Amino acid sequence: MINIPELKFCYGSRFTLSVPKILIDRFPAFMVGANGSGKTTLLRIIGGFIRIQTPPQIIWHGNWVPVKPRYFAYLPAQPYYEPSFSVRSYLLLAGNEEKLHEIAEELELSRILSYRMGTLSSGWLQRVLIARILLQDTSYVLMDEPTSFLDPEARKELLNILAKHPDKKMVISSHDLAFLSGFGAFVLGLRDGRVVFSGDPKTFFQQGIDDVFIKGYIM
């Protein structure tokens, strides 16, 4: 579980994020909203990458503890990787060699372990990035816009891969409503730096979507 305190975070005078006290106890949890709504900022606060005076807390080995980046596997919207690294070397940065071949086989990466990261197509690169977060020794996973730049078939493949890991407590920032409808269990809807919806996906699509997105938003 993730316990988010009531908080207000400001980027100078440009942007203010206001969040009420929220308990996330259903996963995958989605944070949805248009670009600039505050999704990435809140995701980084949850992961402890942005420090605030009273940080969120998570259940870690049976106890409530303040969040720290080391508790999370994090996939940013624009991840950094060294193009000259082999896929195998990049995955081993997750520090879990025992599970490497298991995950590589599951994601059909075994034949490209010797390939250089800089030579991969966007679809294969995304598989490698997902493999790395699955290899990390934590049940908490944060992903920022993981379906960006993916075509519908690759998005479907990503959903199928993630669905095989119900042990991972995933929090996903996204404006991809098709991804949410096929995978989400809990929704936080943000608009202009405020949480305007909190609840299950069915209620979101029935009642909350117009509070989050402008009328006519295309899924």
Fold topology:
Elements: E1 2-4, E2 7-11, E3 15-19, E4 22-24, E5 29-32, H1 39-46, E6 57-60, E7 63-66, E8 72-75, H2 87-92, H3 97-106, H4 122-135, E9 140-144, H5 152-163, E10 169-174, H6 177-183, E11 186-191, E12 194-199, H7 201-212
Parallel strand pairs: 5-10, 5-11, 8-9, 9-10
Antiparallel strand pairs: 1-4, 1-6, 2-3, 6-7, 11-12
What does this protein structure show overall?
This protein has 219 residues and is an alpha/beta fold. The chain has a domain at 1-22 and 41-67. Helices cover 32% and strands 25% of the residues. The protein has 7 helices and 12 strands. The protein has helices at residues 39-46, 87-92, 97-106, 122-135, 152-163, 177-183, 201-212; strands spanning 2-4, 7-11, 15-19, 22-24, 29-32, 57-60, 63-66, 72-75, 140-144, 169-174, 186-191, 194-199. The strands form 3 sheets. Strands 8-9-10-5-11-12 form a 6-stranded mixed β-sheet, with helices on both faces. Strands 4-1-6-7 form a 4-stranded antiparallel β-sheet, with no helix packed on it. It has a two-stranded antiparallel ribbon with strand order 2-3. Strand 11 (186-191) and strand 12 (194-199) form a beta hairpin. The longest helix is centred in the middle third of the chain and has 14 residues, at 122-135. The mean pLDDT is 90.
